[in-house]
């Protein structure tokens, strides 16, 4: 090995240079095993220099300083940190996927409030509700007493936390209600929620489930009707009657839409744009018309609710169709929506019964053929 003026070989100098961190985007010059071998050579070279130059304070020389710097650099490189900004980038990606609006205590003072396009929460009169934290990925509410209900679409990757004195209800998108006083009661119509009870493990509630006093049971028809009532805010109390001088005739209120056709067109556009509340308002307007659009709008509304997993609402609209349009031209469509709704709720017997009624009354329709395939009716 030939020595330079400071005692280091040219090959060893090149290996020392390779220990330095690579520039951004470049591959490391040496792997970890190779780096260890270079440092071992540095130690051996240092011992050789010590023996040959005992009279010199070689650690103060250029070679000693270079060896020391290389050793320190190797110790640093042994446990590399994650790439700068990697964790921050991942956090920003998750944050960008969350769509919860920021909720304040002022907004909770209203009986109902919307979470943007994700759905709506409704509290009952006298409910004590407050915001513990609010971010695009998590809304944490404290339900001290009373009842909170919601008709929410998929919140993932965000979630709603409802904290009570009895435990925590974790919602990611469903139709539900939570009541807290002396006991905790959860009604779940669609979707899945997790309940973490105080002093107990986590429970996962499946659709059509009622949780009361820590016991799970099937959601009854009365429970489903009660939940529907919770999600419809009570009208505000009328103002007190004050006698006054006759007022001028009130101006006529302009209807939301010029015609049922315009309302039906607006409902379809709102559905495509994922503006759920606007779609429901337009379908409701068109279905109350006195023309042929009413039957179409009512069934399109039922199809919309089925698509939004509001299955009980879809069944209610089908029942309304049977009452209002017993001789309508879209009877087969209504019956098929009924079959699909019962199938989605896991009501196998009811789905088969509705399918047989459809096939018997409309045997040669595409809906009858689809019903046969759906429930495998022979």
- The count of domains is 3
C-alpha termini separation: 91 Å
Radius of gyration: 35 Å
Unreliable stretches (pLDDT < 50, length at least 5) are: 23-27, 79-83, 86-94
The succession of helices and strands, N to C, reads HHHHHEEEEEEEEEEEEHHHHHHHH
User: CATH topology of the largest domain, anyone?
Assistant: Jelly Rolls
Provide mean pLDDT, rounded: 77
Estimate the strand proportion.
15-25%
Describe this structure in words.
The structure is a single chain. The protein has 378 residues and is α+β, with helices and mostly antiparallel strands. The protein has three domains: 10-77, no CATH class; 105-230, Jelly Rolls (Sandwich), CATH 2.60.120; 260-375, Serine Threonine Protein Phosphatase 5, Tetratricopeptide repeat (Alpha Horseshoe), CATH 1.25.40.10. It has helices at 10-18, 32-52, 62-77, 86-97, 105-108, 221-230, 260-272, 276-287, 293-307, 311-324, 331-344, 348-361, 366-375; strands at residues 112-114, 119-123, 128-135, 138-152, 159-163, 167-171, 175-180, 184-190, 193-197, 202-205, 209-212, 215-218. Strands 1, 2, 3, 4, 5, 6, 7, 8, 9, 10, 11 and 12 form a twelve-stranded mixed β-sheet that branches. Helix 9 (293-307) packs parallel to helix 11 and helix 10 packs antiparallel against helix 11 (331-344). It is extended and about 110 Å long. Residues 23-27, 79-83 and 86-94 have low confidence and may be disordered.
């Amino acid at each position: 090995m030939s020595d330079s003026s400071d005692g280091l070989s040219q090959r060893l100098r090149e290996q020392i240079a390779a220990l330095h961190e690579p520039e951004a985007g470049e591959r490391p010059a040496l792997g970890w095993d190779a780096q260890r071998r270079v440092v071992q050579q540095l130690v051996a070279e240092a011992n050789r220099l010590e023996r040959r130059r005992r009279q010199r304070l070689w650690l103060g020389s250029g070679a000693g300083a270079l060896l020391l710097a290389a050793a320190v650099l190797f110790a640093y490189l042994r446990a590399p940190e994650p790439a700068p900004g990697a964790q921050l980038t991942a956090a920003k990606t998750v944050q960008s996927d969350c769509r919860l609006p920021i909720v304040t205590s002022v907004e909770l003072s209203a009986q109902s409030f919307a979470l943007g396009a994700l759905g709506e929460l409704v509290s009952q009169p006298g409910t004590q509700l407050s915001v513990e934290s609010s971010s695009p990925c998590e809304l944490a509410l404290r339900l001290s007493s009373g009842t909170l209900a919601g008709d929410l679409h998929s919140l993932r990757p965000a979630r709603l936390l409802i904290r009570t004195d009895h435990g925590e209800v974790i919602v990611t998108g469903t139709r539900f209600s939570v009541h807290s006083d002396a006991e905790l009661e959860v009604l779940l119509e669609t979707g899945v929620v997790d309940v973490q009870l105080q002093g107990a493990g986590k429970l996962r509630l499946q659709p059509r489930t009622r949780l009361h006093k820590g016991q799970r049971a099937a959601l009854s028809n009365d429970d489903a009707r009660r939940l529907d009532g919770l999600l419809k805010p009570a009208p505000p109390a009328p103002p007190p009657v004050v006698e006054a001088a006759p007022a001028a005739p009130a101006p006529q209120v302009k209807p939301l839409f010029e015609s049922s056709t315009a309302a039906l067109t607006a409902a379809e556009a709102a559905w495509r744009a994922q503006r759920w509340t606007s779609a429901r308002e337009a379908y409701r307007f068109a279905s109350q018309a006195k023309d042929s659009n009413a039957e179409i709008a009512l069934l399109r509304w039922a199809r919309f609710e089925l698509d939004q997993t509001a299955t009980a609402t879809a069944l209610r609209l089908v029942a309304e169709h049977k009452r209002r349009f017993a001789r309508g031209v879209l009877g087969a469509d209504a019956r098929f929506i009924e079959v699909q709704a019962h199938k989605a709720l896991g009501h196998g017997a009811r789905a088969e019964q509705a399918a047989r009624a459809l096939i018997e009354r409309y045997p040669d329709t595409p809906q009858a053929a689809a019903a046969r395939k759906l429930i495998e009716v022979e």
